[in-house]
Write a structure and sequence with these properties.
Radius of gyration: 20 Å
Organism: Pseudomonas farsensis
Helix content: 25-40%
Pfam family, one: DUF4096
Number of strands: 7
InterPro entries: IS402-like_dom, Transposase_11
Structural class: alpha/beta
Order of helices and strands: HHHHEEEEHEHEHHHEH
Shape: globular
Distance between the termini: 25 Å
Protein name: IS5 family transposase
Largest sheet: 7 strands, mixed
Amino acid sequence: MPKQRYEISDADWELVADLFNTPRRTGRPRANDRLMLNGVFWVLCSGATWRDMPERYGPWSTVYQRFRDWRNQGTFNKMLKRMHVKLNAQGLIDLDTWCIDSTAVKATRASSGAGKRGAEEPADHALGRSRAGLTTKIHMVCDARGVPLHFTLSAGQASDISHAQPLLDGVQVSTGWGRPRKRCRKLVADKGYDAESLRKYCDRYRMQPVIPYRVMKRKPKPGLPRLFDKPKYRERNVIERLFGWLKEHRRLATRYCKLATSYAAMVTLACCRRCLRHLFSYSA
């Protein structure tokens, strides 16, 4: 049977098959994990509801339940971590320059109204009111090649600078041995991240902030003046292009998920597809 659109290729599946294949010892035979994952990819890319899934993937309820199991077990996070190890082993992750930014995603009315959940689910479900209405923000860190390294979710009205340090603290680029890489040499961001607290944070970890100053009256700071690296700042467009690519997945361009954990799982899966694209496009 020919490969359908959105489905994972043989080479991609070979890299991650052991993360998903968990044979059942008793009871009814387990539905094929690759087929279930392809069904999740179809929902991610098409943006359709689970009930509208093509029959070739089996019952939609089975695919949805499998997605929930993988979400709760952290399978998608393990998959992204493995992609980072593979990319870093081939020298395809830029550990020198990282970019940070956020994008707002409009949420539908159906995404609101979720009740209280477990400890991992935020109280506001990462939903808030902004100029565009009900929205969610994706805060992202990527390298200079556009490889997504880490992201967090917040309500749409949250400021970028308030989530900058927690976002950077969560970066862990696995190398396969030793400690994971958590810092870069140069951090590129726009004026929304122009704050003295972030600049001191960069100084603490010996990172050079490539962040333009806002147009405002400032008192001169003691010590040597900070030099702004204009050529390096032009590389910031890589994260804008990354957001544009991620939002081609219609399940990300508009939020339909009630739970922030479900939406985060979809974002993680899209980041995995991005890493797989880098892995095979550069190695080919």
